Amino acid sequence: MFQQSGSSKAWWKWAVLMSGVSCVGAANLWAADLGDVGQDTTSPNAARIARLVDAAIADGFRDASTRLALRTEDAVFVRRAYLDLVGDIPPPEQVIAQLLDPGPDKRERLVEQLLESPAYGQNWARYWRDVVFFRAQEDRSQIAAVAMEADLAQRLNDGDRWDQIAARFITARGDVREEGSTAIIMAQDGRTEETTAEISRIFLGIQIQCAQCHDHPYDRWKREQFHELAAFFPRVGVRNVRTLTKRSFEVFANDRYRKGARRKDDNGRPQAEHRMPSLEDPTVPGKPMQPRFFLTGASLPEGTSDFDRRAQLAEWITSNPWFAIAMVNRMWSELVGEGFYDPIDDIGPDREASAPQALKLLADGFRDSGYDLKWLLTTICLTDTYQREARPRRAPEEKSFAANVLQPLRSDQLFNSLLSALEVDERHAAPNRDLGRRGRTGMRGQFGQIFGYDPSQARDSVGASIPQMLALMNSGELNRYIESTRSSLITRLIEEIPDDEQLIVELYLRCLSREPTVQELSQLVAYHNEVGSRTQVFEDLLWALLNSAEFRHRG
User: Fold this and answer.
1) Which helix (H) or strand (E) holds 287?
2) 275-276 and 287-288 strand pairing
3) I need a surface site. Which of 92, 105, 350, 395 has the fewest CB within 10 A?
4) Structure pTM?
């Protein structure tokens, strides 16, 4: 699906018109007076922390020229919450229900409802799959993506704590097609230094690999500290698993070594102890390193088994303050559009955070909740900061968190939105014979090749490309779902809704989760009068909405 076809739609004026409808413009049209989050809550601690976070952020604007954005309207909030929490757009009836609900706590109830949906775990499992595999060192590691996604989705929906999930990744062993927690080690091909760097980056937000060959140029980390951390992983490896029925890989550990064993023995097994290479003569074995955790100095003796090394490291990482800070910073950035630290995976004690008191409140609350991810997401969604209107990314001289920030949709969010808008069942769609870039087959894998990006990447560096635009505008598969055929969505809607204005509203609600503006409505009436064909008008409208900048972004 979404390959470019030989011909394209002819209604270019509608493409230009709709592509220019940015989320900013829509957000301004939907502006409402700044309100208060409902206080009658089933999670009083989350609501209390949310209010304290907002107060800490607002305090920084007392003497600032930057104005805080207004609270966004309900229709915008519904679409934002759906895309953020379950990775899809809301059905039109959910938007209408939210608009008609008079309850002061309706936004909080919506968040609670979405976090109980199975789509919550699926959405965030796909997010973390991209975090892991966009930095993969081994192309063959993509075979571990499916198991990781399925396993992590189940654990997130079951309410597993973040420290439990992290510990499983750090201590993982087993067949990568069956054990989803092996994904990080498999993505780095079991290489000691690369695995070390990823564990630190993902779970602590600290890129200590910058100290691998020399002392860190900007932070306090020394070269010895990187290699002491690497000394927790030298006995871990990845090897082929071949049977009569399958080919796979296995993350394994070997604690039986000859004294003085080399980095890899003749059978490719890991070495007994990690050695820091000599800068003067890289051919010599190098200095053996004792496993030591760089944030606290806690250490293990040489000869400690692999199981004990990684289990102890997992305990030290998940009990360290930077573990909670890293997760809070990442989730805040994903939901609000800007982190307390940017980049989100390059933080640490030598970096300065925006709104540090708000960050501390969230990190302490996350830790006290038992690293409950649903608690963290709920708390962020209850803040006024999350619920403000969206603006483009701020200028450097402006203050952080005056508004929510426009976000380009991740490939899975965009793909889900297309399926929902068109009422297409992914299971019944024509499969793609090629393997997806991140180890997935079919339409979703192909879509990810074109629209995927690293979620750890700064979002202002994620831009639309010509292949992406052509993949939507020229897609023969997409056009077939849009065109009026016996079984198509547009045919059914045209038959069920004889009133043109009602049908226009239906398509806007279905695609953009809002009603059309007066200007948009008048332009469509004029276009209808010009074309004459009702079928062509609404085919063109649906195509234009799906190709609009507003559809491709989360406002």
Assistant:
1) strand 287-288
2) antiparallel
3) 395
4) 0.88
Residue segments in the chain with a per-residue pLDDT below the cut of 50? 2-44, 258-263, 265-269, 431-439
Yes or no: say if 386 and 106 are a contact pair by the CB < 8 Å rule.
no
Q: Tokens 């000599």 map to which residue?
A: 278
The whole-angstrom separation of Cα 238 and Cα 190 is: 5
Tokens 């559809």 label which residue?
551
What whole-number distance in Å separates Cα of residue 108 and Cα of residue 96? 17
Helix locations, 87-138, DSSP H: 92-100, 106-115, 118-133
- Work out the burial of residue 542: count CB atoms within 10 Å of its CB; fewer than 13 is exposed, 13-18 middle, 19 or more buried: buried
Q: Are 195 and 233 in contact (CB under 8 A)?
A: yes
Q: Which tokens is 453 given? A: 């990006």
Rounded Cα–Cα distance for residues 402 and 61 (Å): 8
pLDDT for 470 equals 83
Q: What is the pLDDT of residue 406?
A: 94
Concatenated DSSP letters of 477-505: HHHHHHS--TT-HHHHHHHH---HHHHHH
Q: How many CB atoms are closer than 10 A to CB 233?
A: 27
CB 393 within 8 A of CB 113: no
Task: Estimate to the nearest angstrom the gap between the alpha carbon of 490 and the chain centroid.
Answer: 32
Q: Is 175 strand, coil or helix? A: strand
For residue 534 the two structure tokens come to 């009702």
CB-neighbour burial class of residue 14 (10 A; exposed 0-12, middle 13-18, buried 19+): buried
For position 463, what pLDDT does the model report? 79
Q: Would you state the pLDDT for residue 324?
A: 98
pLDDT for 465 equals: 82
Q: Is 108 exposed, middle or buried (0-12, 13-18, 19+ CB in 10 A)?
A: buried
d(CA 82, CA 164): 26
Give residue for tokens 């799906």. 546
| pLDDT at residue 441, as a whole number | 57
* Cα–Cα distance measured from residue 234 to residue 304, given in angstroms and rounded to the nearest whole number: 11
Report residue 189: phi and psi, to 5°. Answer: 60, 25
Q: What residues contact residue 550 under an 8 Å CB cut-off, 6+ apart? A: 18, 21, 22, 23, 26, 512
- Give the residue extent of every domain in the chain: 12-22+410-554, 35-116+320-405, 136-318
Return the structure tokens found at 1: 């699906």
The reported pLDDT for the residue numbered 192 is: 95
Q: What is the pLDDT of residue 270?
A: 61
